[in-house]
Amino acid sequence: MMKDVIAIVLAGGKGTRLEPLTRDRAKPAVPFGGVYRIIDFTLSNCINSDLRKILILPQYKSFSLNRHIDQAWKFLTPNLGEFVEVLPPEQRIGEAWYAGTADAIYQNIFRIEREQSRDTIILAGDHIYKMNYAAMIAEHRRRDADLTIACLPVPRPEARHFGVMYVDDHQRVYDFREKPAEPDPMPGHPDLALASMGIYVFKTRVMFELLLEDAQRSGSRHDFGKDIIPPMLATHRVFAYPFRDENRKAAAYWRDVGTLDAFYQANMDLIQLDPFLNLYDPSWPIHTYQPSLPPPKFVHAEGNRVGAAYNSIVCNGSIVSGGQVHRSLLSPGVRINSFATVEDSILFEGVEVGRHARVRNAIIDKHVRIPPGLEIGTDPALDRSRGLTVSEGGITVVPKDEDLGRFASPIG
């Protein structure tokens, strides 16, 4: 165990671009891949990297996140100095909520200081990827860096949403711009820019000094990318660390699932013939809470009622009873009734699809009952007229516990 490193997971974003999935939960707590939550990927990376001192800093709608951490991540042993601990905002230093990423760390500086760690790794709780943080920390120490920033090349138009880095031949960072309107290309790669992944390894002592200075600076937005990193470049040793993927695929896999369409596509990645994200590698398991549910069941009944799922993920507790499922993801406890069809969709826990109903190009949040005969996702304009959210890519999203009964029509 890397006992002299503490991991801090920032989990405070509102996730407004993921509404209505974030209407009642924090973005890192949004279900993903059937049985996981988004934050499980960052936390599993920590455990698989032998990092077992983990602090999580939430801010908005944290009940669901707290419950998931209690259910899934309390297997560490405090007596051995291991913990996954949620630190809600306490306003110990001031009366304001977290004003930025740096301020979130600063407001918890007393708790972090108690661990007396040599290095601190700062992570986001809302990205999907596999990474060995221990290798990054080792490189950070080998270079005697004050700060090491994980990075990866992205298409230049996408780089406008990230911090963009410029490095020399030794990977030392000489310029850093947060979300530039026109990112400069990487040398020799005119279509790519080098983007920060929001993963930082600091010497803890240096981080404390910088946070204290920033807290006293008038006009600061208290954000690492805007206010901490750029001034460091002239006074400290700051290096880039190219992303090394543990996904064991030809192309590196890292996804920011901050929009409904990005979230939908990342889930759809899992059901490909050769999935882009490998969840079946025992050398890099993704940990989560698994409820005690029976195996999935498929029912072939009389009257041409064939229960079947094709190119899909079907989780425990689900029953496909005389319905058809194509290229979809059924979370635990989903029921598909006779003559119903589900295509290219994501169904969260406890969803029931009534007889003769049809779901297509949709995300259905928890415990929604789709009445018999109702169609969701086949006509985006109709779904909008019903008050449902339709993404830019045409994906219909039904909120948690939504009552669709008012749209039902009798089956002839």
TrEMBL record:
Metabolic or biological pathway, per its Swiss-Prot or TrEMBL entry: Glycan biosynthesis; glycogen biosynthesis
Keywords, comma-separated and alphabetical: ATP-binding, Carbohydrate metabolism, Glycogen biosynthesis, Glycogen metabolism, Nucleotide-binding, Nucleotidyltransferase, Transferase
Taxonomy, superkingdom: Bacteria
Entry GO MF terms: ATP binding; glucose-1-phosphate adenylyltransferase activity
Residues in Glucose-1-phosphate adenylyltransferase/Bifunctional protein GlmU-like C-terminal hexapeptide domain copies: 294-398
Residues the record marks as site: Could play a key role in the communication between the regulatory and the substrate sites: 59, 97
The Nucleotidyl transferase domain, residue ranges: 7-270
CDD domains noted in UniProt: ADP_Glucose_PP, LbH_G1P_AT_C
UniProt-listed Pfam families: Hexapep_GlmU, NTP_transferase
GO biological process assignments: glycogen biosynthetic process
Top EC class for this record: transferase
Nucleotide-binding found in the keyword field: yes
Catalytic function, reaction form: alpha-D-glucose 1-phosphate + ATP + H(+) = ADP-alpha-D-glucose + diphosphate
EC identifiers of the protein: 2.7.7.27
InterPro entries: ADP-Glc_PPase, ADP_Glu_pyroP_CS, GlgC_bac, GlmU/GlgC-like_hexapep, NTP_transferase_dom, Nucleotide-diphossugar_trans, Trimer_LpxA-like_sf
Binding residues annotated for alpha-D-glucose 1-phosphate, in chain numbering: 98, 163, 178-179, 196
HAMAP family given in the database record: GlgC
NCBIfam families per UniProt: glgC (TIGR02091), PRK00725.1 (NF001947), PRK00844.1 (NF002023)
Family: Belongs to the bacterial/plant glucose-1-phosphate adenylyltransferase family.
Subunit organization: Homotetramer.
PANTHER family according to UniProt: GLUCOSE-1-PHOSPHATE ADENYLYLTRANSFERASE (PTHR43523:SF2), GLUCOSE-1-PHOSPHATE ADENYLYLTRANSFERASE-RELATED (PTHR43523)
Biological role: Involved in the biosynthesis of ADP-glucose, a building block required for the elongation reactions to produce glycogen. Catalyzes the reaction between ATP and alpha-D-glucose 1-phosphate (G1P) to produce pyrophosphate and ADP-Glc.
Record's protein name: Glucose-1-phosphate adenylyltransferase
Phylogenetic placement of the source organism: Bacteria, Pseudomonadati, Planctomycetota, Planctomycetia, Isosphaerales
Name of encoding gene: glgC
